[in-house]
Amino acid sequence: MSAPTTATGHRLGPVEQVPVGEGRAFAVAGEQVAVFRLRDGTLRATRARCPHAGGPLADGQLDPGSVVCPLHLRAFSFADGSCAEGERVRVFPARVADGEIVVEL
């Protein structure tokens, strides 16, 4: 079942679904999206699969500016999806609204 859509994005449910410092994958409008909750509580979102080898980015290590793919350790920027090896992952705006995760595709 896909996330409910509103005029301001796709609501994915309570922010507590994603523990601080971790990521989780969600189905959003037919797309797999990884949502990350950084240590400062902010949210970031990318496509759920690494473009290099399909690794599960939701399982990657986080720092404030990037996620590291668990398969081959490629770091993807939350700002623009770029990585040093030249590949790019799609990034999406994500935020908390009324205690819920909201992602815009």
Q: Could you give a quick summary of the protein structure above?
A:
The chain is mostly beta strands and 105 residues long.
Task: Explain what the structure shows.
It is a single chain. This protein is mainly β. The chain has one domain (5-103): Rieske [2Fe-2S] iron-sulphur domain (Rieske Iron-sulfur Protein, 3-layer Sandwich), CATH 2.102.10.10. 0% of the residues lie in helices and 44% in strands. It is built from no helices and eleven strands. The chain has strands spanning 5-6, 9-14, 22-28, 31-37, 43-47, 61-63, 66-68, 75-77, 91-92, 94-97, 100-103. It has a four-stranded antiparallel beta sheet with strand order 1-2-11-10, with no helix packed on it. It has a four-stranded antiparallel beta sheet with strand order 3-4-5-9, with no helix packed on it. It has a three-stranded antiparallel beta sheet with strand order 6-7-8, with no helix packed on it. Strand 7 and strand 8 form a beta hairpin. The model has no long low-confidence stretch (mean pLDDT 94).
